[in-house]
């Protein structure tokens, strides 16, 4: 089944580039940039990847991103991910990057975006992997800081197609970012937002009604609100679901309890994604495989999930 799932043409719509930083590359970049690390080796770092919740993961994720310093580092990070796409027949990807994670450490926006976008261009030409980049705001920071990030990004407007919202969800509702999303949309960008991962269904309503998003990232807690379920089915609003992430971050106790196939059978436009593959134990194919192993996903269901991912692209 793995080989069959791997060969299925698919799009990936929820993947944080900083979350694709494999321990081996993290150690290589630390050495290249002469940065000391608190872990003795790759295995020690990997064994730190045990999380009880989103925040525990984010603490390590931001710490890991500190090894990314130069344009070449961002290029190498993105290129490694694109090679995985090629190997797993991901024909189109819409990855996130978190500029504030880098600009707040003194790395110029330009360094980040140039390294990433050059790799994405080369990926399309040399590997045949199409892509469209999403600039994601960190929701634990203020809306003014998001506005300043958008200001910095506008001179590079040709390098990304959408804005997103990620980081610590609880206590940081989408309503906090209404004005910056209004401005980004008026500048011609698409909008997506993480909502309903750890946060309540109300955050999904806000993301739809206030941020006017095209897709919901995660959204698995929509199932707690029947009226919301009806809306996302009626309007065919895509959900970018990340099964392995949800288990690693304890959103569900076990993969056998994941609701993605129930949602699919109810007519929700759900898709399968890896979120932070270096931290959660796999790329897209491994996420599909886990659904087969633990939920009995059939080949026909896998085909519908893959087709949903192609249908839900922002850029066709
Ligand atoms: N940043 C990277 N991965 C994330 C996730 N799963 N939720 C929120 N922010 C993130
Ligand atoms: Zn995410």
Task: Give me the secondary-structure topology.
Elements lengths: L1 H6 L2 E3 L10 H10 L9 H6 L6 H11 L6 H17 L2 E4 L2 E2 L1 H5 L5 H19 L2 E2 L2 E5 L4 H11 L8 E5 L11 H9 L3 E6 L5 H9 L5 E4 L7 H9 L4 E3 L1 H6 L11 H6 L4 E3 L4 H4 L3 H12 L3 H13 L5
Parallel strand pairs: 1-2, 2-4, 3-5, 5-6, 6-7, 7-8, 8-9, 9-10
The structure holds adenine and zinc ion (ZN).
Adenine binds next to helix 4.
Descriptive report:
The record marks 218 as: Important for catalytic activity. Zn(2+) binds at residues 14, 16, 194, 275. This is Adenine deaminase. By secondary structure, this protein is an alpha/beta fold. The chain has a single domain (2-311), classed as Alpha-Beta Barrel (TIM Barrel). It contains 16 helices and 10 strands. It has helices at 2-7, 23-32, 42-47, 54-64, 71-87, 99-103, 109-127, 143-153, 178-186, 201-209, 226-234, 243-248, 260-265, 277-280, 284-295, 299-311; strands at 10-12, 90-93, 96-97, 130-131, 134-138, 162-166, 190-195, 215-218, 239-241, 270-272. The two termini are 28 Å apart. The model has no long low-confidence stretch (mean pLDDT 98). Zinc ion (ZN) binds at residues 14, 16, 166, 194, 217, 275.
Query: H/E element string?
Result: HEHHHHEEHHEEHEHEHEHEHHEHHH
Count the beta strands. 10
Query: What would you say the CATH architecture is?
Result: Alpha-Beta Barrel
Number of helices: 16
Helix coverage percent of residues?
A: 40-55%
> What is the CATH superfamily label?
Metal-dependent hydrolases
> Strand order within the widest sheet?
3-5-6-7-8-9-10
What percent strand?
5-15%
By CATH, the topology is: TIM Barrel
Alpha carbon gyration radius: 18 Å
Which residues form runs of ≥5 with pLDDT under 50? none
Structural class: alpha/beta
User: How confident is the prediction overall: mean pLDDT?
Assistant: 98
Distance between the termini: 28 Å
Question: What is the name of the CATH class?
Answer: Alpha Beta
Please, how many domains?
Answer: 1
Shape: globular
What characterizes the major β-sheet? Answer: 7 strands, parallel
Ligand roster? adenine, zinc ion
């Amino acid at each position: 089944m793995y080989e069959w799932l791997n060969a299925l043409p698919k799009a990936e719509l929820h993947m944080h580039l900083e979350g694709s930083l494999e321990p081996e590359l993290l150690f290589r970049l630390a050495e290249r940039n002469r940065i000391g690390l608190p872990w003795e080796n790759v295995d020690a770092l990997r064994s730190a990847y045990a999380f009880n919740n989103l925040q525990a993961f984010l603490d390590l994720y931001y710490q890991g991103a500190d090894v990314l310093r130069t344009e070449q580092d961002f290029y190498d990070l993105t290129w490694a991910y694109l090679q995985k796409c090629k190997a797993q027949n991901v024909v189109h990807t819409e990855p996130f990057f978190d500029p504030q994670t880098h600009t707040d450490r003194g790395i110029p926006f330009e360094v980040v975006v140039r390294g990433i976008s050059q790799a994405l261009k080369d990926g399309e030409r040399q590997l045949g992997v199409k892509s469209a980049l999403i600039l994601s705001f960190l929701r634990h920071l203020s809306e003014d800081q998001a506005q300043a990030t958008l200001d910095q990004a506008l001179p590079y407007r040709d390098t990304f197609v959408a804005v997103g919202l990620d980081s610590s969800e609880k206590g940081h509702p989408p309503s906090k970012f209404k004005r910056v999303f209004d401005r980004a949309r008026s500048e011609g960008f698409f909008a997506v937002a993480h909502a309903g991962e750890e946060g309540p269904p109300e955050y999904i309503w806000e993301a739809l009604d206030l941020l006017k998003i095209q897709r919901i990232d995660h959204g698995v807690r929509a199932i707690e609100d029947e009226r919301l379920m009806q809306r996302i089915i009626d309007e065919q609003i895509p959900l970018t679901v990340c099964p392995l992430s949800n288990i690693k971050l304890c959103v569900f106790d076990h993969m056998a309890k994941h609701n993605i196939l129930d949602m699919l059978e109810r007519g929700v436009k759900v898709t399968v994604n890896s979120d932070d593959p270096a931290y959660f134990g796999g790329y897209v194919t491994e996420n599909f495989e886990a659904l087969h192993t633990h939920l009995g996903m059939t080949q026909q269901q896998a085909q519908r999930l893959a087709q949903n991912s192609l249908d839900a692209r922002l850029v066709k």
